[in-house]
Specification:
Layout lengths: L2 E8 L3 E7 L13 H5 L2 E2 L9 E2 L4 E3 L5 E12 L2 E12 L2 E2 L3 E7 L5 E8 L8 E10 L2 E10 L3 E13 L2 E9 L8
Antiparallel strand pairs: 1-2, 3-4, 5-6, 6-7, 7-8, 7-9, 9-10, 11-12, 12-13, 13-14
């Protein structure tokens, strides 16, 4: 299930929207289901929000922002079947860098957080947005962009990530050159 939500408005004329919930094209191994991801636990700290659970793929804090699912990848990372979810968030009407949350099946059978990776760690920028991610060869392969404001100081990143216990190990990190919208 997906829904559209308003993320913010500037001078009452520009409305930003995002589709929330697990994308219809996402596929899941037998051990992780779409409803579980849409109601998964989320760690605290994203946009300075407290920990909690998603409801239909999002958390709404009204004027204080929210959190929602951006992209999902599933497969085996670090020898375990996992779902990796990029979660976007807002606070104060502005989106912050996305956080990758690695989920696994807990000993009690429920979905639990195995680890998280804040994409703002790699470059101090106002935004970090996942462009693509998939799992193969026991690694998460990911590409994302960072930028300031609407479109300034854009930089592309790619990396491979492995899960070692509760730690995300980043390898093959590449940083593109900084670009600007105007010459």
């Amino acid at each position: 299930m997906t829904a559209t939500r308003t993320l913010g408005a500037i001078a009452g004329t520009l409305v930003l929207t995002a589709t929330v919930g697990v994308p219809a094209t996402a596929t899941f191994p037998a051990s992780v289901s779409r409803p579980e991801i849409n109601s998964a636990p989320v760690p605290g700290g994203m946009c300075r929000h407290s920990k909690g659970h998603l409801v239909n793929g999002e958390r709404d804090f009204g004027v204080n922002g929210g959190e929602w699912i951006e992209k999902v990848a599933t497969g085996r990372v670090g020898g375990r079947t996992v779902a990796v979810v990029s979660i976007g968030c807002t606070a104060g009407g502005v989106s912050w860098p996305e956080t990758l949350v690695f989920y696994r099946r807990g000993s009690d059978g429920r979905l639990e957080i195995a680890a998280k990776q804040y994409l703002g760690k790699f470059r101090r920028a106002e935004h970090a947005s996942v462009q693509s991610m998939f799992i193969s060869d026991g690694k998460l392969h990911i590409a994302w962009n960072t930028y300031q404001g609407c479109c300034f100081e854009r930089r592309k990143f790619t990396a491979d990530m492995r899960l070692r216990g509760t730690t995300v190990r980043v390898t093959a990190l590449t940083k593109g050159r900084m670009t600007h919208p105007y010459p």
